[in-house]
Amino acid sequence: MQENSSSLSETSSVAKNKHLSTKIVNNIPPQIFALLAMVSVQMGASVGKSLFQVIGPLGTTFLRLGFAAIFFMLLWRPNIRQLTRKNVFLVVSFGIAIACMNSAFYIAIDRIPLGIAVTLEFVGPLGVAIIQSRRLKDVLWVVLAAAGILLLAPLGSKMEIDLIGVACALIAGIFWGLYIIFNVQIGRAFAGGQGLALSMVVAALLSTPIGIISGGAAVFAPQNLLSGLGVSVLSTMIPFTLELEALRRLPSRVFGIFMSVEPGIATIIGFLVLHEVITFREIMAILLIITASIGTSLEGKTKH
């Protein structure tokens, strides 16, 4: 009898603690979760950049995607037996988009400041939003984004910017756009995040050969594995959890508007953590693309 009473007391205590933690989480504005998710992603990129000197951008990509694949497989435990031919095509396509997006982005931030790379990468989701909208008004946002990109191009100026880095950031943006399109289709084809988990495995496998060749034996050094885990936690696991909580309580379009300021956050973190200094012209370019991104989100909100 005494054991039963003790067990009931423990159960009640656990329930109270769970209720208290839920209450605390619910009292935090969802905008805070969205902001923290963006900060976490950019901090992860900063940590990743410090790894480049040891194992290179592609070695870092391999570690990030490898740990992320393990995390999502444990979280969602997808049933492989339920895969159809159509679903396999989706999973592989999504995995290719994830691998290429991350690889190109890491090569970009190895060559150009973090804030500029994130800004250029935003051209991908911006383009998807504009194409899906098909509103004449959205031409304005295209012009603003194009003006921002042109400001970053060293045309007839003494501005020094690595063109390979710019190209890789834009390529990352294209694959980010494809990521968004495939993510919607994956969400319809699979329950929960099962499709994402399988696609992350594909991405990790694709990045393995070139990641190991690029990073060499140093990839498997304990300190580098630990740093790679840190990159994956900051860039994938924490943001995923925070974004889920934000999306649970925020309309998707409002969430999109908040995410539009990510280039600004990347610029600040690049300055504070990586000591990357950017010019006034580059700041203007970032502001133009942020404005274009916010504009498409607002137009989408009005439309819906």
TrEMBL record:
Protein name: Threonine transporter RhtB
GO cellular component: plasma membrane
Annotated TM spans: 51-76, 88-108, 114-132, 139-157, 163-184, 196-219, 225-242, 254-274, 280-298
Family: Belongs to the EamA transporter family.
The keyword Transmembrane appears for this protein: yes
Organism ancestry: Bacteria, Bacillati, Chloroflexota, Ktedonobacteria, Ktedonobacterales
Entry's localization field: Cell membrane
Annotated EamA domain residues: 32-151, 164-297
Lineage top rank: taxon: Bacteria
Record membrane topology: Multi-pass membrane protein
InterPro entries noted in UniProt: Diverse_Substrate_Transporter, EamA_dom, EmrE-like
Principal place of residence: membrane
Keywords linked to the UniProt accession: Cell membrane, Membrane, Transmembrane, Transmembrane helix
Keyword Kinase: no
